[in-house]
Each structure stands twice: as C-alpha cells, then as structure tokens.
Amino acid sequence: MIDFRYHIVSLISVFLALAVGIILGAGPLQGAIGDQLTGQVEQLRTERNELRDQLDEANVTVGNDSRYIEAAGPQLVAGSLQDRRVAVVDLDGADNERDDAIAEQLETAGASVVGHVRLTDSWTDQDEESARQTVAEGLGEKLGEVPQDATPEQRLARALALALTGSTPASSEERSPEAIELEALLERFALVDVVSEQTLPADVVLLLGGPAPEQAAPAAAEGEEAPAPDTYVVDIEVQVAVAAQEVAEAALVAGPTAVSGDVVSTIRANDDLAATLSTVSGIEGEPGRINVPLALAARIADQVGQFGFEESATAVLPPAVELPPVTRTTSSDTGAQGAAAGDTAGGTSDGTSDGTEADGAADVEQTTAGAGEG
Question: How many CB atoms lie within 10 A of CB 160?
C-alpha cells in the first residue's frame, strides 16, 4: 500500500505541474512568450533575407569574374606555344571532359596535341612490380645512358619519354623507329593505353594528374600517431614526370586543386623536384586550364614555377615569355650527305630500323617468357 500511495502522489504532482503550465501559458505569460517567439522569427527571417541577398551578389560577382576570365583567356594564351607539339600523358585514368578542355587551350596557344597515352593500373600496381621489372630488364640498351642503379619504374618512365619525343637524326618531322618500338612494347605489355595514334615526335610533355589516391592504411586509434600516407603510386607518377623533363624540351604536371598526397603537392613539397618540375593546379576550372599553356611556355624558356591559388604555389599566373620560332629539320634538308652518311655507317636506315625493332621486341618477349618459366 505504501508503494501504491507513492505512485498516486507522483501522478498528482505531474498533473498539477501540467495544469500550472497551462494556466500560466494561457494567462499572464501568454503575451510575453508570444512576443518573444514572434521577435525571434522576424529576426531569423531578416537574417535569411540578408544572407540570400549576399549570396545573390556573390554569385553575380563570381559569374562576372568567370566571364572576364573566359574573355581574357584567349588573349593571354594566343600564340604562347606557337607550332609546339604536345604529348599528353594521363596519370590517373580517363577524364575526357578535362582532356578536351585543356586540348582546346593548347590549340588556342598555337600548339598541337600529337600524342595521347594513358597509364594503366599495371604501371603503378604493387602486385605488378615483378612484371614491370621483367619488361624493364628486356629494354636493354634501347634507353641510352641510364644509371646502373635505376629502378624498373625509372627505366619504364624513360622509355615512355623517349617514345613520345624521339625523332630521327635526319628529320625532326619523323618519329624514330626506336620511339615507335618503345611505344609498341609498352602497349603490348599493357602498361599504357594509346588514346590517339602518334605520328609526329613531341616537343613538350603534359602530364595530367588526379586527386590524391585513397589511403589503404587503417585510421589511427585514439592516442596513436596517424599512419604515414601511402606514396607508392604517386612516387611512380613523379618518376614519369622527371623522365619527361630530362628528355623533352619541357614538361609540366597539371592537376586539380592541390591536396596533401597528390602528385602536384608531392612535387611542391620536395625542394629538389620543385627546382626542376613546374606544376599547375586547379585545372578543374578555367584559370587553371589557362595556366597550362602559359606554364609550358615558361618552362621552355627555362623558368620553373608552381602555379595556382594554394599556399604551396609560387605564383597565381605564369610569367609572360616570348618563345623563338620553331626550327625543324627535314630529310630533304640533309640531302645526299645524310644518305651517304647512312651508307658509310653500314646500310640503309630502313634496313637497320626494321632489324632493330624486330630484335628489340624479341628481346623483351624472350626476357618476359624466361621470367614466366622461372
């Protein structure tokens, strides 16, 4: 009975409190509470309208800025890369909308895209490391002078750079047989996809990166240090850029707004790399795309820079440079002297090229087959 009385008292207290609240809310406090709530609602409505007006003004300003950039861009870019040949390397997979937009800027600059390749997952997959080593070893002497301690990825990067830029000694208008052979080998072993067939040697190489790769490492527990980011893929991509700059007249790495761990940020964070490699960030927008041909022109003029809006960038806009006209040699320029020199060397260039290409492919095939049997 004592427990039941306690329940009765509790229920009576609840109903009394509810009744008092109703009486006060409907009586002396009704006006004060209503006025306070009305005032708060009006204040919130006013703030909302002010914020909406500010947003509309900001959108108008951004729209006007975009229109100005689009109008001024062609004037800034026009002729900056006149008659230069560009090879494009996609480091991060397909992005046709981005590639088309940048190709349009290059064309406005007077350049032409003469080749376009895309690295496959086999180029950066850790599980394919032994296969890459086998292919790299099979390249042998086709890479020219390479340090003995060069890694397989460095050898493959040099092979790709030579494939994109190699021309015949007699004519800068023709790809060398060695360049064609190297490209065929890289494609045959599924290291690259050829997006568009290349018929002319490139002067400069544009490397297009993507967002930072997803980190496979687990998140750190509370109180523990965060695991170091996995830089394996990005480090390999950087090697491709280094090899391109060593072989080509100029190379440029361009990517979206830079974030920690992507290829652009990795280059900018390394003083040695940043001293030789130029980067452009923000290519998802018009300002970044305009910067691409301008930065390539500056690099041809031996001016290195990191261009974008981030703190890691050294400038927003590449410096204006005036490049000299392109001078190219053709086989007709060499005349009979080139043919005589070829005969003295021990045969015609056609015969030598065919034999070299066939032997080179056979060497890599044999090396790969031997590794598979092992």
Answer: 25
Calculate Rg over the CA atoms of the chain: 32
Res 335: pLDDT: 53
For helices 349-373 and 129-138, angle between their N-to-C axes, nearest 10 degrees: 140
**DSSP annotation string for 187-207:** HHTTSEEEEE---S--SEEEE
Structure tokens at 186: 């890289």
97-106, 287-296, 338-347: least confident range: 338-347
Q: What is the mean pLDDT of residues 16-40?
A: 68
More confident residue, 134 or 212: 134
Please return the burial class of 122, using the count of CB atoms within 10 Å of its CB with bins 0-12, 13-18 and 19+. middle
Task: Name the token pair of 163.
Answer: 């494939």
Contact (Cβ atoms closer than 8 angstroms) between residue 300 and residue 249: yes
Contact indicator for 84, 252 with CB cutoff of 8 Å: no
Q: Which residue has the higher pLDDT, 15 or 322?
A: 322
Q: If you write DSSP's letter for every residue of 328-372 in order, what string do you get?
A: ---HHHHHHHHHHHHHHHHS-HHHHHHHHHHHHHHHHHHHHHHHH
299 close to 274: Cβ distance less than 8 angstroms: no
SS3 86: strand
Q: What percent of the chain has pLDDT over 70?
A: 74
Distance CA 374, CA 365 (A): 14
